[in-house]
Amino acid sequence: MDRDSAAAMILAGPASAADLAAARMQMALSLGWHIVLACLGVGMPALLLFAEWRAVRTGDGDAMRLARRWATAMGVLFAVGAVSGTILSFEMGLLWPGLMGTYGEVIGLPFALEGIAFFVEAIFIGVYLYAWDRLSPRAHLLSGVPVLIAGVASAFFVVTANAWMNQPVGFVVEDGRVRDVAPWRAMFNPATPPQTLHMIVAAFMVAGFATAAVYAVAMLRGRRDRYHRLGFIIPFTMASAFAPIQILLGDYAAKFLAEYQPTKLAAMEGLFHTGPGAPLSLGGFMVDGELRYAIEIPSGLSLLVGYSPHTVVQGLDQVPEADRPPITPVHLAFDTMVGMGFFLLLLGLWYATAWWRRRDLPRSRWFLRLAAVSGVAAVVALEAGWVVTEVGRQPWVVYGKLRTFDAVNPVPGLWAGFVLVSLVYVVLTVATVYVLRRVAGAHRVAHAPQEPE
Question: Is the dihedral of CA 398, 156, 431, 380 positive or negative?
Fold first, then answer.
């Protein structure tokens, strides 16, 4: 037996259920916290570059003030995101040595490329933040373009690694050893297109709706000046434009799952029985091995997957019980994601209709109230989508190849690490909110002329 096979056997044995639960909770906390900052890092450069471009082109002072304010916030969020990203990189090796020790050479390429993208982003953020008055307006605007490109590239590379965990290709296992590694094929696996597109669009939506929500709250409090209106219109327009695209990408992803990961799709819909006429289930939860209290749309899932009520959809009855993911959390997370997505789509359509008719925001205060919660809704949809992606793959960490239990670190006492990391994130959250509030106060526009209601 070779050294790698022996190491894998050692890792597989001593891990306890408590260790596995602690490792999974810690990874979920770190990923769930970091992903919000990552989305803001992808989307906020687009917002501030548009605002600065508008200011340079037209001399719009309000747009320039917005660009400077958003740039400061972006710098703060990038610094905090670097901390949480570093924690995640250590957790991959410390919590999941069975994964990285066995398959590290297969998925190492996207992580290396992400590191390059991160450093490019960091360098140009430094140039952008500290060269406002040292470069010409056009040169300064151009210095922000690599920040946007590197942020999108960074998200793409990381998500390709997760996509590989859902569709592991680019290697051969012989005698318990990984051989014939093809890193580029592994990175551009079948799951890469649907996952990366879905994630990057989600990032722009989160950044747009979250930023717009801040100004919606300010407008509800009576700050209807042009500065706050522009601060709302720019990010809300961007996010609303991406909402219908995201719905189409979600449909694309569902069709992909029907072909490549039918077990995950069945868990998302709580579908137990294979056959045509598969219903679309809204709500409900597991009771005695069946999905109960759900609202069913007859043949809805068959129509979505194959555009025909006669399309056969694989259910959970084709999979051994030990290989099924937990149904209720996956199903409810999927419904939450879809529900929030359609809420944001309808809110965007309301905004677009009012703008098309009057070149103005909807006049109802209910629009601003709903816009004020749109940022939270976008984040909830994001987190629910990752629950579907990660929990829906269980019990596999590498789909069909390596079980999560076999990948976890067998060292006892992982709960202590989980508690410690949780405290770190509490401190990071409080510090981030405090600094962002100070930034908002420092850039507050006082006594601005109010626009009519």
Answer: negative
